[in-house]
C-alpha cells in the first residue's frame, strides 16, 4: 500500500499548522499491522483517513476488534503505524499537546488522589503553589474535594475514573484522547460523568477524540461520529450530529435523537454481524 504522503512510513508529525480547516488531528493513509507469535500478520487498521478540527468532539464507534483503541494509541504516539502518518497541530507550546484517559483508570495505587492528579504538573515543572491550586480546582470540579489524601484502594471505580479525568484536565492539554473512559461504570454514574465531561469540554474548548461502543453516548457528546468497519478497520462514514450546544441529558428523549441512534445502528449492524459470524 502506498503511504499518504512522501514522508517515511509510520511518521508522526508535530507542526505549527497553518494548513486547511484548522485540523488539530490529521490521520493520512494509516495502516497498522502486527504479528502474533506463531501466526501471520494481522492488519488491524487499513487506509484510515480522518481529520478532527480544533475544538471538535469526534467519537469513533464500530464493532469489537475493529481497531478503535489501536487508532487512538497511534494518535497518542504509543504505537507506531506501519504506513501513513498522524499530524497533530500544536498551538500552545507551553501546554501538553495530548492527554489520554483510558478505561482502566491508569492511576498509581501508592500515590494519594492529590499526588496522582498533580503528576503531570510536577513533570512539567509547574510551580508547587500553582500546581496545588490547579489540582484542588479540578478535584472540586469532578466532585472529589475532601478525598485529596485518600488512596485509590479506598475509592470506588467511579471515583478512580474521576481521578483519571482530573489528571488529564489539570495539565490543560490541547487534545484529549479518551478510550472508553466510562465503560466500566454503572449506568447512572456513566450518565453523570458524561454530562460533566460535556460541560467541561465546552467550557474549555478542548479538541476530543473519543472511543466508545455506546451509540447513545456518541450522539450525546459528539459533533461528528466516525463509523468504523470490521477489521481491518477503516473509516466507513463520518456523520454530523445535528444537535446544538449546550446539550442537556433530556436530549435523549428527543425523537430525532432516537431516530439517529437507529440510523447509526442500521449502518453498523452488518459490521457487527460480520464480527459475530467470524467468531462462531
Automatic annotation (TrEMBL):
On the tree of life, the source organism's domain of life is Bacteria
InterPro entries, alphabetized: AAA+_ATPase, ABC_transporter-like_ATP-bd, ABC_transporter-like_CS, ABC_transporter_ATP-bind, P-loop_NTPase
UniProt keyword list = ATP-binding, Nucleotide-binding, Transport
Q: Looking at the Swiss-Prot or TrEMBL record, what is one Pfam family this protein matches?
A: ABC_tran
Q: Which GO terms describe its molecular function?
A: ATP binding
The ABC transporter domain sits at: 25-251
Name of the protein in question: ABC transporter ATP-binding protein
* Record organism: Nocardia callitridis
Amino acid at each position: 500500500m502506498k503511504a499518504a504522503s512522501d514522508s517515511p512510513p509510520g511518521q508522526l508529525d508535530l507542526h505549527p499548522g497553518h494548513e486547511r480547516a484548522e485540523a488539530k488531528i490529521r490521520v493520512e493513509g494509516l495502516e497498522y499491522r502486527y504479528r502474533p507469535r506463531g501466526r501471520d500478520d494481522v492488519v488491524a487498521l487499513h487506509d484510515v483517513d480522518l481529520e478532527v478540527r480544533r475544538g471538535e468532539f469526534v467519537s469513533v464507534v464500530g464493532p469489537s476488534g475493529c481497531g478503535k483503541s489501536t487508532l487512538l494509541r497511534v494518535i497518542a504516539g504509543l504505537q507506531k503505524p506501519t504506513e501513513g502518518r498522524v499530524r497533530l497541530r500544536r498551538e500552545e507550546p507551553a501546554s501538553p499537546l495530548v492527554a489520554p484517559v483510558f478505561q482502566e483508570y491508569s492511576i498509581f495505587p501508592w500515590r494519594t488522589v492529590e499526588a496522582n492528579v498533580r503528576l503531570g504538573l510536577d513533570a512539567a515543572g509547574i510551580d508547587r503553589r500553582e500546581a496545588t491550586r490547579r489540582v484542588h480546582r479540578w478535584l472540586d470540579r469532578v466532585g472529589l474535594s475532601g478525598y485529596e489524601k485518600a488512596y485509590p484502594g479506598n475509592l470506588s471505580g467511579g471515583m478512580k475514573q474521576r481521578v483519571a479525568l482530573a489528571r488529564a484536565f489539570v495539565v490543560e492539554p490541547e487534545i484529549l484522547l479518551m478510550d472508553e473512559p466510562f465503560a466500566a461504570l454503572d449506568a447512572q454514574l456513566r450518565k453523570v460523568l458524561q454530562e460533566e465531561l460535556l460541560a467541561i469540554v465546552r467550557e474549555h474548548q478542548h479538541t476530543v477524540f473519543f472511543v466508545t461502543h455506546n451509540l447513545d453516548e456518541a450522539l450525546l457528546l459528539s459533533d461528528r461520529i466516525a463509523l468504523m468497519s470490521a477489521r481491518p478497520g477503516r473509516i466507513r462514514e463520518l456523520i454530523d450530529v445535528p444537535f446544538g450546544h449546550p446539550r442537556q441529558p433530556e436530549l435523549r428523549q428527543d425523537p430525532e435523537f432516537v431516530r439517529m441512534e437507529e440510523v447509526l445502528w442500521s449502518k453498523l449492524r452488518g459490521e457487527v454481524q460480520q464480527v459475530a459470524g467470524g467468531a462462531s
